[in-house]
Predict the structure.
Amino acid sequence: MKLFEYRGKELFEKHDISVPKGKLVKNEKDFSGLNFPFILKAQVPIGGRGKAGGIKSVENLKDAKEKFSQIMGMNIRGCTVRKVLAEEKIDIEKELYLSITLDRSKRMPLIMISGEGGMDIESVPDEKIFKEWVNPLIGIQPFNIRSVVSKLKLEKEEEKGVAKVISKIYKLFREYDCELVEINPLIISKDGEVMALDSKVNINDDALYRHPDIEPELVELTPLEKDAKNKGIAFIQLDGNIGVIANGAGLTMATLDALTHFKGDGGVFLDLGGTDDPEKVKQAFELMKKAKPKVIFLNLFGGITKCDTVAKGVKAVITKEGIDCPVITRIKGCNEDIAKDILKDAGLITAATLQDAAQKSCELARGA
Amino acid sequence: MKLFEYRGKELFEKHDISVPKGKLVKNEKDFSGLNFPFILKAQVPIGGRGKAGGIKSVENLKDAKEKFSQIMGMNIRGCTVRKVLAEEKIDIEKELYLSITLDRSKRMPLIMISGEGGMDIESVPDEKIFKEWVNPLIGIQPFNIRSVVSKLKLEKEEEKGVAKVISKIYKLFREYDCELVEINPLIISKDGEVMALDSKVNINDDALYRHPDIEPELVELTPLEKDAKNKGIAFIQLDGNIGVIANGAGLTMATLDALTHFKGDGGVFLDLGGTDDPEKVKQAFELMKKAKPKVIFLNLFGGITKCDTVAKGVKAVITKEGIDCPVITRIKGCNEDIAKDILKDAGLITAATLQDAAQKSCELARGA
Amino acid sequence: MAIFVDDKTKVVVQGATGHQGMFHIGEMLDFGTKVVAGVTPGKAGQEVHGVPIFNDVKDAVDETSANTTLVLVPARFAKDAVFEALDAGIKTVVVITENIPFHDAMEFVHYAKYNDAVLVGPNSPGIASPGKSKVGILPGGIFLKGNVGVASRSGTLTYEIVNSLSEKGMGQSTCVGLGGDPITGTSFIGALDAFEKDKDTKAVVLVGEIGGTAEEEAAEYITKNISKPVFAFIAGRTAPPGKRMGHAGAIIARGKGTAASKIKAFEKAGVKLAKFPTDIADLVEKYG
Amino acid sequence: MAIFVDDKTKVVVQGATGHQGMFHIGEMLDFGTKVVAGVTPGKAGQEVHGVPIFNDVKDAVDETSANTTLVLVPARFAKDAVFEALDAGIKTVVVITENIPFHDAMEFVHYAKYNDAVLVGPNSPGIASPGKSKVGILPGGIFLKGNVGVASRSGTLTYEIVNSLSEKGMGQSTCVGLGGDPITGTSFIGALDAFEKDKDTKAVVLVGEIGGTAEEEAAEYITKNISKPVFAFIAGRTAPPGKRMGHAGAIIARGKGTAASKIKAFEKAGVKLAKFPTDIADLVEKYG
């Protein structure tokens, strides 16, 4: 789960990492207590808000009111701004980049730090980004920190300040089961303080149960996706018009790939996973219907999820509510014969192979 | 460093482990606030105080005053009782034994627990003492605790209580760099509470610098040993009359062994260790003189500690203060010739081999 | 021979008395797996399909000489279960449990390395060596004994591919489900290394998907160390990009992680790639 | 050959610019040791006896291919230093530092196992393979090249014994100071195992002392696994008993740990025991 910048900064403050003085502003009255000049920052769960005009500096109350009304409610790459953070301006001496994330390949947390923080960090060459891996069996050690900090060529006192922040950030990363903690820029102010001017904190969804203090925030999801998430169904809405239901992420992805091969476009990605509960299949199929795809493609390889279980769930929905789009089915594996028998009068189109089914789905979606 | 029972219990309370209500009593006024009956317990850094009469139950104030005056100041195997702990009596349902110590062989903390706690724990057979090792890379895990607790055949609620204590004790063990935490008995009271009736906590001396809250307590040492400890010299007083100075614990032990072989008895065990400072040797030799052995046996194998360094220190003391007992020297290794030259006029007895030197020392000590 | 599990494999099932545990103990026994013990704290003395249940793994190992564990416990108990198995001396750990916090997985993956144990998963469907042993929840009916080694990051997709191999008469030496989580114990490289050494394996099929760089690393490893023919299918060529991990994700990946990058890397390593999952069987038939 | 250190050993010294570091770099160079790097944070670019100093071990390894470290840093920095060396890929770690909290030592000993590294110490005087390499603070002048392997828990006593061997013309393949602390990485068993495999070692001398059960375990190991003649000296037959570790100490030891127990165990294993340290040389001469 991605936290909004201001919530990430709340965690930073809890871990004694300095951030600029600031507050969430919902309306113009909330400006009181802040010294000018300050910055208004759109709170959205995606990057690139600066370039989109979601960050503005304000000099006085009039200016603030005007810019606040510009930012609040603006649309940044599909996200409506509903929260704005106001933060006092800091005099910056140096801008650094700092992150801790997961290196899947080494199976370890990876600390990355650079003396060239800021907007263009992704174009900073690798040799200017210093990396250090932390073995999870021993956790962060003084040498890890020394190693990266010494390469930044900072003043002694600055080194100490940055070292402390790394240590605290690692603690936060571990304690809150983070996938990512990123600070860009991490700055050293004119008066020598090390401060986080931004925050990106992603918490591992699987570990949220350990963090009851972190309120869930489903801002990135469409209403149907939220509904699916609450029902425990893997459901992602895409731009196309073919709804894909399959079991297992790999098979679902392979199905979308096959559609692309035949020049069709997936509109929903619905992974039944391993289930043996027809009721859950029913809920999934209902969700799919609500997404109103032009064609539904049901691609099953029965194993743990038996074909007849899925067939029962699908049949129940069609019997009860009918279906107003073509459904192509390709059913294989455990109990495929029973499944085919269950569905034989449901008016579905059957195909023998993935290729056939994909091709038919694409043709139907194109209105052929 | 061994902590007194009451100090161990202070740490227990800090870690939320129940102990009986009690207080340290220095005089009769201190009894106020305690309910009768209670127990008076001599605070000494050695075992066996119960059998020596250092633990007494009291029924009323008169009884308490009388027994307090018996215990305070009594001598238990060489230790004078200077502190007495008064603790309210607990109704005991079950007595267990629990300890965490170091298994040198596996290089891991070892948890031991038995359903047969109490005085005679050392005679409880191995199969009734349940052991569990904790790998220091991962620390204590729920399965470690489950494994030993399930073998005790307790009630469900009792199991939970004991499990919590194990987890807390391990935390204390690790956090305070303990060599040993032992609770004998760990009891389950009539009303179901799990409580530590005793405490033995040993903290690793090498780690004391990390625990400024633990005040040092040198109760086990003689005045000369304390003096030596403050000077950083390894100095142990024994029962015999030959003072041994050597460099390295192994060589010092081997020297004592050689004395025993020739029917002599070591009176002091002084290990110079690896030093290159004549001043430290001087201090060591002065300490040895103060211990008033009948004979001093200086056994050196020069390596890191060069023979001439030691010779200089010894010579300085003898030149300044003289020496009133025979000193047998056996000097070998790095710079032995220079050393022999330095000491040649100091009136010392020289020997070529360890055996010769040991034999001469023993003869002189016997007054031969 | 085979890799990771074979006829010497003696399995203890952790989480044996749950719904899944009971079902899959039966399935594994049907497959011919030597399931020798189950573990559920507090249930020692019970039996599941005739398999004795113990309170802890140590007891189970002491009594039955189990050398492999199948972990089916709920996610929040998985780390403890894996640690317990490793401390009890188990040398092959198969973790089926999904939704394990990845910080937990990191710890037990490294603790497995400390113990010189093979750990497959988490979120793995298991391992099957047809004719010898199956440790996991893979559907038993799709397998055929033979000489193709399969290692896959996907579940169902693997079944589909194995099924098409079997239908064409090309059996498998071992099929390893590596698990779909970001952190897994054994990666393609671990499986490739084992298949290379296994004299019953003549060809290797890898089933990859987008995300991470395991395929790119496998490709490099194949170039240097693998002499046997390797075939691959990559799922997700047109899937929506996964969650973007800040700038950090981009800095680590530097363009890797996409299906295109993986396909390119495999092609460079001489690996034959299938367009559709079921094409794999044709490729193996033709070039294997 | 030799064990643990030989002519392929390339040493980095951690704590190189301190008093001890500078002195022993000189001594090791004199012995013929390939000291290729020193590490002191913040002192990169300096030199000690011509040996370049680096800020961290990784840099040192990258530049010099060091494969062995000598740890001379103060006790409170030792754990960090060992972790750093292991993470940098160093496979032989010799810890001279004394007074390291044993909880720290436990952690790095197990982390060395995780990294498949040999760790000797802490509180070790080091390792010397005469004619090849010396990594430590053992006095160089006492050694002679030869075929006796020496492993010792003691410091000075070892020098005494090695010296008497050399004086009688019996050289050493390798002399390992295992360290006198309650927790050490390599024990007698580790050294015995290496000496057994080392074709340059014809006889092994063990120098033990009271406390712990390392000697008793070694005796058992010798009976089962060691074909070469083994000699031993045990110090502390009449030393005062060490600190008593509550009842726990007694329960663990169950009578082991005393000089008598160790001597009995060794005798049972066919190990020849010396009464005086210098007798060892006579025994080896007679039976070796």
